[in-house]
Amino acid sequence: MQNKVPKIYHRWLIEAEKMRKGGDYNLEINISYEDVNNIIAQAEEMLNFATENL
User: Fold this and answer.
1) Of all residues in the chain, what percent carry a pLDDT higher than 90?
2) How far is the CA of 52 from the CAs of 3, 11, 23, 35, 39, in angstroms?
3) Which helix (H) or strand (E) holds 1?
4) pTM of the full predicted structure?
5) What whole-number distance in Å separates Cα of residue 6 and Cα of residue 4?
6) Largest CA distance in the chain
């Protein structure tokens, strides 16, 4: 049986992309250090999932 990718990862990717676009196109920075730390933690979790399920 194959492991399915958790749906939350899709949501995290959408939210991270919104922040990236805001960083590219907005003149003011609206991303906090807490946001950055959360995104890094989410990315690490997704990478670990991918590595374990290759």
Assistant:
1) 61
2) 10, 20, 31, 26, 20
3) none
4) 0.79
5) 6
6) 48
19-48 CB burial, b ≥16 within 10 A, e <16: eeeeeeeeeeeeeeeeeeeebeebeeebee
Q: Which residue has the tokens 């899709």?
A: 10
Helix (H) or strand (E) holding 54: none
Q: Which pair of tokens denotes residue 25?
A: 């196109």
3-state helix, strand, coil in the chain (%, to 5): 70, 0, 30
pLDDT band for 1, please (50, 70, 90 cuts). Answer: very low
